[in-house]
Amino acid sequence: MTEPAQECPAADPLSASQDISRVAVVMPAHNEDQHIGRALASLRAAADALQGERPEVRATITVVLDSCTDRSADITAAYVAADARFVAVDVRLRSTGSSRAAGVRAALASADSEAARTWLANTDADSAVPENWLLRQVELADAGADAVLGSVEPDPAGMDPVILRRWLERHPFLEDHPHIYGANFGVRGSAYLAAGGFPRLHVHEDRALVERLRRRAFAVVATDTIRVLTSGRTHARAPQGFAAYLRALGRELPAPARLQPPG
């Protein structure tokens, strides 16, 4: 879970003049065979929706398989074999920030358009994006956004309903929301490079990048129009990540309250 974001600056007129011609999705994965199939299916649907409405914008999806020992690579391989838009990259980094950065490097290296016209859409392998996820980001980018901060909603399946209610109370779904989630974050390629890219951090690499973008006066837009469904698990992969935050919410509640359904 990240700290609240600051107020968004005005759009950079130079960026606003650069319509997006390519979208590169980057998704890191470490042993996510319980979720990655749903994640890949949702990305395929979002890419199809973008192609249907904006056929001139090419989409690619790079899956960064980081030290996977489960079936994540096999599940991904099936999508790579069936759909030329999918690419798999194997790394041994054990770091979300480093994995995201490796995926972006691979995506930009194969880009057939300039960085200012390439949009980098980031999500996680335990999440499912909505069908309009890429289309809406391209619309915002063409309107002048250099980065888009989307919202997330924990998946209620298998989640303690009281923890979910507490999370929803603290994170109302609003436009111009104050949050930063790596599972729902897009950035213009040129802005990403100018800000130094994702740092090599195990957690909060998304927040660090957004802070750099803001310091350089890039236009950052927060929206709830592309809400991503993400895992509500409390078993943390990162020591200070989203799952750890949900687990901390559970510790704040009295033991009897955690046993009661929401009223």
Question: Can you put this structure into words, describing what you see?
Answer:
This protein is an alpha/beta fold. The protein has one domain (13-259): Alpha-Beta Complex (Spore Coat Polysaccharide Biosynthesis Protein SpsA, Chain A). 36% of the residues lie in helices and 17% in strands. The chain contains nine helices and ten strands. The chain has helices at 13-16, 36-53, 72-82, 96-109, 133-142, 161-170, 189-194, 205-215, 242-252; strands at 22-29, 58-66, 86-91, 118-122, 127-128, 147-149, 152-154, 185-188, 220-222, 228-230. A seven-stranded mixed beta sheet has the order 3-2-1-4-8-6-9, sandwiched between helices. Strand 2 (58-66), helix 3 and strand 3 form a beta-alpha-beta unit. Helix 6 (161-170) packs across helix 9 (242-252). The chain starts with 12 loop residues before the first helix and ends in an 11-residue tail after the last helix. 45% of the residues are buried. The model is unreliable at 1-16 and 255-263 (pLDDT under 50).
Low-confidence runs of at least 5 consecutive residues: 1-16, 255-263
Radius of gyration: 18 Å
Total helices: the number is 9
How would you state the average pLDDT, rounded?
86
**SSE string:** HEHEHEHEEHEEHEHHEEH
Strand line-up across the major sheet: 3-2-1-4-8-6-9
What is the total domain count? 1
Keywords for this entry:
263 residues; alpha/beta; Spore Coat Polysaccharide Biosynthesis Protein SpsA, Chain A; 3-stranded mixed sheet; 36% helix; 17% strand; disordered C terminus
